[in-house]
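Q: Could you predict the 3D structure of Putative vacuolar amino acid transporter?
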Amino acid sequence: MLSTIPSVMYALSDNVTPQEALSGIFGSVSLATWIFLLVPQLILNYKTGRADGISLAFLTVWLIGDITNLSGAVWADLVPTVIALAIYFCFADVVLISQCVYYNHINSRRRHDSVISVGSEQEPLLTRRRSSDTLGLPGSHRRRSSARSGTSQRSDSLAKILEEDDSESGNSWVRNSLSILGVMLVGTAGWAVAWQAGVWRPSPVGDVPSVANETAFGAKILGYTSAVCYLGARIPQIVKNYRDKSCEGLALLFFILSLMGNLTYGASILCHSLEKDYVLTNLPWLIGSLGTIAEDAIIFMQFRIYTPKQSTSAITE
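A: Sure. Here are the predicted structure tokens for Putative vacuolar amino acid transporter:
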């Protein structure tokens, strides 16, 4: 990564302004962020073998937003990299939705089978337990004492679990921080390589008005539709978290990367130009990216509020 520093300094000092360099770097970091966005949630679902923490309505509306975004990009004849990224988004959405549907179906069938088996075996066991309690058979005191010892053992086990959760929580923050730093370095290095290879060149601001006028009206409608979908997609997830009073099953890094991707994407647009025609041309994408930051902030608050409070006094009792 040290080799990227001279490249950046060279770019800033020759044929490109700092404003354009920042626009390119932010855009490249945003691209790297979106590529790795769904990976943390996919890994978490695979490790836990469940996906009931994430709202399927959230993913479905997001997929609709990506489909309309792809259609608008093709209609407006945007650059191939934008179209390729939109195709990747749709593919990744389908993979995550398929994974969630699979785990939800498997776990639902397991719960149904377990309820049937427990219901058929529990009735005679409860009858025998009640009769032994009323008769006061020898050994009942031993069973009660063993129950007490079992309770203390469970308390010790709970304490160990909470200690492991503490260490896991600390490790997860370290992993998340390193992941964010890695994505930023990859994005910056990618921009530097693209600049040196001649793949990336600053877009002339003077051509913006003609581009704005030539953009198809239907493409603009699709762009605004995708922005509305992106804005509304997180609402089902926020409602689900509120009803469950939990964020269990959600990958925090997934939403951190989403926040970082939206911030860097909006920054790349605004660093390029603040001219009225240019901003209006990119307004749907600005609304879709910067508008979701507030909703991501709500989800971060839910992560904080719904994190189980670990009370050592309750354990010792």
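Q: Anything worth pointing out?
A: Confidence is low (pLDDT under 50) at residues 131-151, 157-166, 207-213, 311-317.
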